[in-house]
Amino acid sequence: MAVFLAKRAGQALVAIFGVMTLVFFIQRLTGDPTYLLVPETATQADIEAMRQSLGLDRPLLVQYLSFLADIVRFDLGRSFIQNIPVTEIIASRLPYTLQLAGGALFVAFMIGLPIGLILALARKYKSSNILMGVVLAAQSLPTFWSGILMIMVFGVWLGWLPPSGSGSFAHLIMPSIALGLLSMATYARIARSSILDELSKDYVRSARARGVPQGRLVRRHLLRNSIIPVISITALEISQLLAGAVIVETVFAWPGLGLLTVQSVVARDFVVVQGVVLLGAFVTIAVNFIADILYSVVDPRIRLDGAGQ
Amino acid sequence: MRIRTALLAATCAMVLAQPLAAKELLTIDLVNEPTTLDPHMQWNPDSYYVYRNIFDNIVTRDNDGKIVPQVAESWEQISDTELALTIREGIKFHDGSDLTAEDVAFSVKRIIDPEFASPQLGQFNKITDARVEGDNKVVLVTDGPYPALLAQLVKLSVVPKAIVEEVGKDGFNANPIGSGPYKFGEQQRGVSVTLVRNDDYWGEKGEFEEAVFRAVPDAATRVANLKAGTSDLVVSLDSDLALQLENDPQVQLLTALTERVGFMGINTTREPLDDPELRKALAMAIDREGIVEGILGGGEKVVSQMATSAHFGYVEGIEPIPYDPEQAKQIVEAAGDAAKTKMEFATAPVFDQRIVQAIQQMLNDVGFNVEISMSDMATYLKTVQQPEQGSRPYLSFGRWSCACQDVDGVLFPLLHSGSNWSRVSNETIDEALETGRSSLDEQERLDAYKTVHQLVHDETLILPLYQAAALYGGAAELEWEPTANESLFLNRMSWKEQE
């Protein structure tokens, strides 16, 4: 276990360092935020002065080294545009992203998993194709369209839910559904194929032969054994959801990290982008690590030193 | 029993009284959250929509666009380079302290200090000093005669010296204290800013006890919020969304012509556009009426000079170049191969691409070879402001506002050969622009600008297209007159319950 942890921590550090270096240089290749910060009437001298005050006039390597030095001291810097520390900006957005990711995951899980189960068990019936069709439709609807549609129906016509914004449970419902429907389809398909795999295995046949009832077979054996791929998918989904759901956040005016990232990229607010990417890299690594541990909990045959995998 | 009746009566009275009670909270949907509430820092509409309610400016503009007193009660040009402001007495900051001449001088010096690095520095850097004289006088010194000074002071907010010095830049941004009609309430990052009415305001008080400005990036969502009644005023709509407001009695469309001019920049220093005939063909090929009525449709107006009637320096009598694609075609044909040069047409996603594409089509229809070059705003700004005039793009689309309603802020950056946006090199124009920037004689300035407008027209040095409109959606009960300078002054808004 200790070897596993040490190895993982080492890998994580290398990965984070690589990601940060990439982000730092790629962003600086894409342009210069100074022009966006000054009014149109600014002269070349004004622009130069602004560039100096942001520290962007220094050689790239100097900027990079001071950036690394700051990171080591856990200082993510200050936003060029909002003039406040990046940690403060991210900390104010993170709770919203967590809420939305949680809501979406809940929707995806609670709808996707049962649908996958039904699809697998009822595969002999033609009518199950209809359900598959519904799943595909849900996945194919672009959120900028389904989101606005929901807003018009439930927010404006029926007046049941607040059309946009944040602050209460009611605000969370529509964005969670809009975002969750996408992952729901993934869950349904993964669960279906994974259960189908299990169904064809010998232990299922012998359990059936022993007369184990269907309900118990599903609960005690099938679900547990087919859950591993679902855990892997959840790890991927979580990192994706935390990286932000740009379109859903834009449509529902949900103040999450995705919206912040896109706005910061467009505004060339390098410092904020760096902070968000660092967080994203960290979350992805952490979630995958947790998934690895969960594998061994669900299936004791998998051992963390890698021997069982 | 009697108690129950009394309670019932009281409840009824309360329920009945509800619709008569004044509207207490006004909800406004902006595009983004204000990036800063310190009025000397970031310069963008979402910020100044909010902080212009917290702070008073040195002077302001009334709804007709006239410069009227605010913190400065009167002013006098005491020499070519000195403007004396008399500071109004009895103005109090939200913490109860008096606004004094010291605060005004401090505010000016703060924004012109290069160390402070205000993004707005370029608007005020002709001011070299501000000194306090006597109890209530501040003298502003400029580096030369500067006629547009008052027009710029419309945007200079007065901050309390003592507080800013005590809490510092960050502290002040987090908890701004001004003297305006509304006080800062709270800010939820990424979500909203709440302002509370200043009941001790010296001037016109606000009608609403509270106002909340929310960030709603998607325009369709802003319209949905308005229609659902969860917001009372929304900004930045386009004509398609405006149509959705038409048949709904609960909401109204509010529009104002702004001081923003849509234009096509032309690089007159680059072949083949150094030929005035070909530039004229560009102008003749573009159907500006068609763009304004067919594409924009939000009340925009065709203009024939780089100015609107909201600007000082707008002159009568400049005729538009007529739309004449046939003649344009002949000119292009006569020019032969030169006219076939592939020309990039720089644009960015913030502009209305329908217009850009229509212009490209119209130009190519008469025989030009124009290619749209779309890049993000930061790259676009860098491209059009290349250090070498000759390497700036052949053509570019733009919408210009100096937020000062004085053509100096439009023509000088766009046409003076030494400016970073200019693709024109013309001595007569440079001289006239310098006169316009430095003469304190209004007639002399107008004459100079007439020379510029006329030359721009005769030689097609830049192509003015239209005066942009700002489209807002409001609840039917909202009474408010949007103005050319795109401000949302809460104390100029009121609420009238519908019958």
Order of helix and strand elements from N to C terminus of chain A? HHHHHHHHHHHHHH
Which two chains touch over the largest interface? Answer: A-B, 51 and 53 residues
**How much helical structure, as a percent, in the residues of chain B?**
25-40%
Q: What is the beta-strand fraction of chain B?
A: 15-25%
Q: How many distinct helices of chain B?
A: 16
Rough shape of chain A?
flat
Largest sheet of chain A: none
Outline of chain B:
globular
Map the helices and strands.
The complex is a heterodimer of chains A (309) and B (499).
Chain A lengths: L1 H28 L4 H4 L6 H11 L5 H13 L13 H36 L6 H13 L2 H15 L11 H31 L2 H8 L4 H12 L1 H17 L2 H6 L5 H10 L3 H29 L11
Helix pairs in contact in A: 1-14, 5-8, 5-11, 5-14, 6-8, 7-8, 8-11, 11-14, 13-14
Chain B lengths: L1 H16 L7 E6 L14 H10 L4 E3 L5 E3 L2 E8 L2 E6 L13 H12 L8 H4 L2 E7 L3 E6 L6 H5 L7 H14 L7 E7 L3 E6 L12 E6 L3 H10 L4 E2 L4 H8 L4 E16 L9 H10 L2 H9 L4 E2 L22 H11 L6 E6 L5 H13 L3 E6 L2 H8 L10 E6 L7 H8 L11 H12 L3 H18 L2 E14 L2 E2 L14 E2 L4
Parallel strand pairs in B: 1-10, 1-11, 14-15, 14-16
Antiparallel strand pairs in B: 2-3, 4-5, 5-7, 6-7, 8-9, 9-10, 11-17, 12-16, 12-17, 13-17, 18-19
